[in-house]
Amino acid sequence: MQRLYSIQYLRALAALSVVALHASNRVTDLLPAGVVDALHLGHAGVDLFFVISGFIMWYIGRETSQSPIQFFARRFLRVAPLYWMASLSWAAFAIAAGFTWMTLDPVKVAQSLLFIPHFSATFPDHVWPVLVPGWTLNYEMFFYLLFALSLGLPKGVRLPGMCLALLILVAAGLVLAPEGAVAKTYTSPLLLEFCSGCLVAELWRRRPGGLLRNAAILVAGILGFILLGPHVDEAEPLSRVLGFGLPAALVLMGTIGLSPVIPHWPLLERLGDASFAIYLFHILVLSAVTQVWVKLPAIHSPLTAAVFIVAFLCVISAVGLWLFRYVEQPLHRSLMAAISPVSKGGAYAKR
Fold first, then answer.
1. Whole-angstrom Cα distance, residue 270 to residue 317?
2. Residue 346 forms part of a structural domain
């Protein structure tokens, strides 16, 4: 299958926008209000990731001959090992650094590693795992499971069947308003973002459109972020879907449609490859870097705060690239070789 460089560029953008947001949180009091408001859009990186995940799953999975078990096993092994490494590394760092504000409950650590949604021991009001950014992977893994189950349906009804299942779950959540962590997660409106990604993939396959149409769609998506983003309550899933998820779907559709005229930027492509590692490990690296920052109050200013954010983006990009090349990629190849023969065929967009 064709490798879509533009998908990799969007993955890099999504990961680095989240990183910039979290880095800015460490220096918010030093930044102008306008900069803080602009970086608030970094929350949308998660929603863009969800839409991209839906796109890629339908792009690579719509014609697959794999069984539901085979497909889910491959997705699990693509995500879980690096997530486990990041989660355990974060827990070890928190212990070594003496983070007394953080509670490490063995049961909740196990739930985190098994992608079981639960209320955090450290932040009891939030359904967060030990490694907080991992909350998104609870949604990802549930979507992978539903997608794998849809492979048991005839090809012609896989997409409508899966989208209908997601709509029923979300409707149930809106009507019943469940309080349990698992039910809240598995009926969240955020699931619709995966559905939108699948629909974008199918629409692009059937009617890719011309450059003018796709440029207009991309502009509409960007304007959606600019106009709706500042009003989004990131803690409210439905608000996120409308203010972040819808523009993300438009940006994805427009960008994919413009792929023929988008140049190939190898560095940005590699950052897209490394986006998963960047996303998983950025909190650990940021916490370590912040330990140095707080010890240098004499240099704190709006300018150095901006330098802090930019410098950290460079640092975590380098770390992520190294992790992808020397840890994630070799590990994934070894695991795939262990469970099945090396597959044949062309390259495809990852994750």
1. 10
2. no
- What per-residue confidence (pLDDT) applies to 164? 97
Distance from C-alpha of 157 to C-alpha of 171, rounded to nearest angstrom: 21
Distance CA(43)–CA(345), nearest Å, equals 36
Torsion angle (degrees, nearest 10) of CA 222, 226, 227, 229: 110
Reported pTM: 0.94
pLDDT at 346: 40
Kindly state whether residue 148 falls inside one of the protein's structural domains.
Answer: yes
The packing angle between helices 275-293 and 5-25, to 10°, is 20
Rounded Cα distance, 22 and 45, in Å: 12
Angle, nearest 10°, between helix axes 44-61 and 5-25? 160
Domain that holds residue 319: 5-339
Sign of CA dihedral 96, 99, 104, 109: negative
Tokens of 186: 């598995």
Give the model's pLDDT for residue 266. Answer: 94
User: Is the pLDDT reported for residue 25 higher than 70?
Assistant: yes
Contacts 24+ apart (CB under 8 A), 232-237: 232/43, 232/44, 234/43, 237/188, 237/189, 237/190
| Backbone phi and psi for residue 271, each to the nearest 5 degrees, phi listed first | -65, -35
State residue 1's pLDDT score.
43
Structurally, how many domains does the chain consist of?
1
Structure-block tokens of residue 223: 């304007």
**Domain annotation covers residue 44:** yes
Residue-wise pLDDT for 2-12, tens only, equals 568 999 999 99
Provide mean pLDDT across the span 263-290: 96
**Residues 223-235 pLDDT 10s:** 999 999 999 999 9
Tokens 């427009």 correspond to 254
CA 162 to chain centre: 20
| Assigned domain for 347 exists | no
Q: What is the largest CA-CA distance in the chain?
A: 65
Radius of gyration of the chain (CA): 20
The whole-chain average pLDDT of the chain stands at 94
Any idea what DSSP says for residue 151? Answer: T
SS3 category, 300: coil
